[in-house]
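Q: Entry one of two.
A:
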Amino acid sequence: MRRSVLLICCLVIANIAFVEAKPYTKYSSQMLAAGKLRKAGKFERADEIYSEILKKNHRNVDVLLGRGFTRLRMSGRVEDALKDFQKVSVLSPGYTDAHVGTATCLKRLGRKDEANQELERAKQYCEGNLKKLKYLADSAWSFGHWDYARALNPAYKAQMTVTEKQQEQYRELLDMAQQLRREGHTDEAEDIYSELLKRNPNDVDALIGVAFCKLRDKERLEEALADFLDVIKRSPEYIDAYIGAAICYKRNHKREKLVDILDQCRIVCEGNEKRMRYLASTAWREGYFPLARDIDDGYPPAEERVLIDEPTKLRVAFGHCWVVDRDDWDEARITLSRRIRPDLSVHGEYDHWWRYGDNDFNLGGGIAYR
């Protein structure tokens, strides 16, 4: 009898363990998928997966952390990422990655003093544990807190020799800098590019990144131009360097040099369909329409090329006018515009008035070509 009871109890316990293991396994596979998507740069989809898990378990610190680092890489989501990291710190005080994530968000938001305080707070949790301190230094280094990492571990620079050469970490830093630059955080982006150049002075990707950051400041146009020309000298097939130099010449009203640098770029790319198409797309984007049209004639673009994200726009407006000592009237206007190409747009407009007891209307339209 005892054996049978014991056997039944074991079966019940095993069954309970099996049932409880299902959600964990499910979350693990979802988290693994989200992590792969994040590394592949598919942040929107990764964010959706993390959010779905959190609907079922909003206190899962690993999922919150994953979503935080995902949102840190998404445009306009730094504040949301900060909330996730701070929630992790509340649920699990001393979680190093959460402190580093919080510090990174604060730094991105321009709150550098608070960022430094957050890193110091993380250090307090690691005091006396060399392994944790080393991990904190590694994590701080990976997210651009280089001075702090060096101060935390004087031997850090020598220890990172191999890691610095790892392509994955390099790409993450480069992608982070490019995202910051696109969002207008040029100072922080330039810090990352400059750090990469310290590690490898011949890194043309970092050098051109610095140049585009300088391009945002009209007082540094000459510096930017010098960097672009340096990239061209080192890597004559780097199309963005020619485009950057052309922008500098355009802003300095040096049209002859602008035309000359674009001609040089075309000569370098001639015969290579992929490069010519990239040059055409870039020329359209930057407003060098004669060059773009000419290249499109010789190298017809792929059907999936998108030059304008929202080519068609419809505007509807209503109004009521009050005129002193005269009748009031109502007015409605409908405008439909379509930008066919960056250099070609058409629009039509219909106006209707209800005034003086009568209806009036007007039709108009136009075409613009540059």
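Q: Entry two of two.
A:
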Amino acid sequence: MKTPKPETIAAVTAAIETKALRVPQISDAIGICQISVKYTINYLRATYGSIHIERWEVAGPANNRQVALYRFGLGEDAAMPAKKVKDRAEIEARQEAQRIYRAACERRKAQEAERRNRERAIREMAKPVRRDPFIAAFFGHAAPVQPVCGRVYKQDMTITDDDEVTA
């Protein structure tokens, strides 16, 4: 095993003298990459036994992985706790919740896509028709297309004074 740099050894031991820390916390505290910190810890543990695992803690709420908290000084390593085993009902309940969530996301995405398509269609209908200038000069400009919204049936609203029509 290659010996780490003396300044790396000094920095790692100084960081974990007062309290137990995880490898990422040690790395952030001294400004050295996590690989170098882990290598230095393994070297000191194997060669001198001057670093021990004070305790184990869960890495995060999303997983069940245990990570070691290292402390400088002589001592015995804490035993790694047993892995928590989930029962089948808990696993099925989580999977059902995930299925419901995915279905809701799919419905929301479909509704958003439908709304975007509807808005795009209205915008496209409101745009003037582009024509070739020669065709426009020959036939005249195109009438703007009115978007269909509101009342579709258009009734003739002219009022006449014919007595025959009103009787």
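A: Comment on entry two: The first strand starts at residue 51 and ends at 58. The first helix runs from residue 6 to 15.
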